[in-house]
Amino acid sequence: xxxxxxxxxxxxxxxxxxxxxxxxxxxxxxxxxxxxxxxxxxxxxxxxxxxxxxxxxxxxxxxxxxxxxxxxxxxxxxxxxxxxxxxxxxxxxxxxxxxxxxxxxxxxxxxxxxxxxxxxxxxxxxxxxxxxxxxxxxxxxxxxxxxxxxxxxxxxxxxxxxxxxxxxxxxxxxxxxxxxxxxxxxxxxxxxxxxxxxxx
Amino acid sequence: xxxxxxxxxxxxxxxxxxxxxxxxxxxxxxxxxxxxxxxxxxxxxxxxxxxxxxxxxxxxxxxxxxxxxxxxxxxxxxxxxxxxxxxxxxxxxxxxxxxxxxxxxxxxxxxxxxxxxxxxxxxxxxxxxxxxxxxxxxxxxxxxxxxxxxxxxxxxxxxxxxxxxxxxxxxxxxxxxxxxxxxxxxxxxxxxxxxxxxxxxxxxxxxxxxxxxxxxxxxxxxxxxxxxxxxxxxxxxxxxxxxxxxxxxxxxxxxxxxxxxxxxxxxxxxxxxxxxxxxxxxxxxxxxxxxxxxxxxxxxxxxxxxxxxxxxxxxxxxxxxxxxxxxxxxxxxxxxxxxxxxxxxxxxxxxxxxxxxxxxxxxxxxxxxxxxxxxxxxxxxxxxxxxxxxxxxxxxxxxxxxxxxxxxxxxxxxxxxxxxxxxxxxxxxxxxxxxxxxxxxxxxxxxxxxxxxxxxxxxxxxxxxxxxxxxxxxxxxxxxxxxxxxxxxxxxxxxxxxxxxxxxxxxxxxxxxxxxxxxxxxxxxxxxxxxxxxxxxxxxxxxxxxxxxxxxxxxxxxxxxxxxxxxxxxxxxxxxxxxxxxxxxxxxxxxxxxxxxxxxxxxxxxxxxxxxxxxxxxxxxxxxxxxxxxxxxxxxxxxxxxxxxxxxxxxxx
Lengths: 200, 653
What we know:
The structure holds 2 protein chains of 2 kinds. Helix content of chain A is about 70%, strand content about 0%. Chain A is mostly helical. In chain A, helix 2 runs antiparallel to helix 6. The longest helix of chain A has about 35 residues, at about 130-160. In chain B, a hairpin with a 6-residue loop joins strand 3 (about 580) and strand 4 (about 590-595). Chains A and B meet through strand 1, helix 1, helix 5 and helix 6 of A and helix 7, helix 8, helix 9, strand 2 and strand 3 of B. Strand 1 of chain A pairs parallel with strand 2 (about 565-570) of chain B, so a sheet runs across the interface.
């Protein structure tokens, strides 16, 4: 083949959302964390398989009221995240600001109710392997929610205080995408932590 | 469907810009001064702490890992000294336990994986023809985490708090009941440091390989070394979370009283073993597959021809990685799992020999009938064939449950694992270091000393580890700090210890060679006349790697350039840190993107995360305090810099 010459001036100098490096980086992070959650679920069922009672009769299965309400809140919170995603995609500054703020508020409410979810387990982390793995799964997910909220807060601050450009809109979109992951991951984790103990 | 439609399938992706394919007069010559100002690292302390240059960070990884290799080697030497005669009292049992644990931990977590990552960080961007890794600040952060994790472990060891439960830290020995104190806490937290660093390297190298290859470098033109690194990094993403989760559970059991590994509260010791080996077996391939890539880089340069069977080689790498996740139970044949499970894992352990065999035959076919130039890098590769194939043979033996039950926990296993790991990774690594040394430093290594290093390593290695097969067959267990004269193990142990002296001599010759290279002549850009891209730029490469991004039209761009037959990208901005981003499959240009420059925030964040991790060994409260301390560096990392024309785009992890 003969040598090719490519003129970079003809190539766009802004990434088109999912072609951007940071998009791929975010996807990679989601893969890592999904692996972590999958291994935590595997550990849960491994311990359950080896235990005689799961949980012990003394503890009983967890309450469902607060966890289920909180699941609903998390599912509803996808709406502002979608809004943030769409607004950022259209480079809509006002819309992105409001949507990010709303996503952040939903996250805060969810985190506050998370305390109640821990109480719904009826046991402290050190009482049995059942309690340990349940607390760990809840804790891992809480860490993800908190990290995602922190990310939203920083991006929101940039949007309120600084001159933003297309790249920040891309970050806002990715923040929304990461929130989808945090919400999506909670559906199986909720089922494992709160429904599986009721299986006989 | 008409033939016309079939030949022109609808392509949903945006078409590449019209102009690229056309041949046009070269644009203005690149302004090398401006490129250096854009991509260079400032001088002085600030520059060296803030650098995001993948070559500087890669060299740091390699240098740090080699220091840990030396420390792990000294520990190995002490082990050999202690075992060289029966009833030796040189080391007491407690110190011996710490030293063999430190040896294994250092070699696996602080040397083998990081050194491969370092070579990847240095060479992947060069081999794919770009100017930096995808996330330069994250790259700097990953190095600091690795460094601090290693220092933490050795700090503990210096204070008589070195871990002492073996490199795989089985519970209950490593649990709160049998290992009070902080020794195992430090071990668990070191895992968190180094695996975090490995995951970071994995993400950035995968994205670099997928998106930043030079235009024209479609999937079937990726150098085999880069394929090997890509496969390794994918394995890291799936394997490292297992050990992080496991060591996190261990740390929680030890510090907050959770019951994961306590059978009296429904916990289970085997959970640890499963989690550890689900990481631990792929770990072997994470160390070994880069070695395969190095061999595929060295052999064509010396055989003077393309590697035979490129598609088979790539598919073998991928197959090995997949199968590598289905073998972990063969480390657990002795724990009493159901026989059906053991049989499955025996079969899987046998099958994985096939893809490795395919690669070895492809290399032999490459060399067959060629007249290889016999240079030091090639000498290490020839040694690899001998040593690794022996290790593979004992691997087949140990993969069989029935024989494994006899040999489990004996020196036979020690012999096997060193044949595989030193044969599969250290020999290729030394070959690669001799091969790439001129590129990294701009200096040449002495040929005779190179051959001496290879010969001493080969002789010393076999003298040390071959007798261990026999010792294992005669029943000598691993991890005993001494043995009685009546066992008859003395002479073979003495022989193995003599071998260790020869290995040490080999490493010293290499060190003298590397130091002496400072006085030798500057290296040529392409001393080996090799076929990959990195040899088309200066030795050492400038901060921007390539004055112009090359355009690749074959699998051997280095040889194309030598024939004056390679294209270039013109009109890239040289006043910005701009890289070309291409489509992952066909490597056609997609857009240009700007990478961030030097920054102190990665170091600041690494320090606050370190406070959190080290503090949490002593009190869980510190974990929270440390995380709060992390907020300012994360904000600073992400916050746009107003003065820059366009702010950086990298996000905090």
